[in-house]
Write a structure and sequence with these properties.
The chain has 1 helix and 6 strands; from the N terminus they run E-E-E-E-E-E-H. By secondary structure, it is of the alpha+beta class. It has one domain. The protein is elongated and about 40 Å long. The N and C termini lie far apart (51 Å).
Length: 76
């Protein structure tokens, strides 16, 4: 990509790694797997390496773990 090509409003393609991620295809944002909200790539903080999914916040990450069966789904 050169300086005249921007990422515009495209969704980035990302490989999620332990404590880091690799941008495979440049873009402006990714989509939360739980909420469907757009997450700016610069603000991406939560993801799953095992499921290769991004999450908007810690609550969405926790919900993903529950849905995957990694955590008990308890209501108090």
């Amino acid at each position: 990509m050169n300086r005249f090509e921007g990422s515009g409003n495209r969704e980035a393609k990302i490989r999620y790694l332990d404590a880091d991620f690799q941008i495979l295809s440049p873009g402006h944002h990714v989509v939360c797997a739980i909420t469907g909200k757009s997450i700016l790539v610069d603000e991406l903080k939560y993801w799953s390496v095992a499921r290769q999914e991004a999450y908007a916040d810690a609550g969405a990450s926790l919900e993903a773990e529950k849905r995957a069966g990694a955590l008990p789904n308890q209501k108090r």
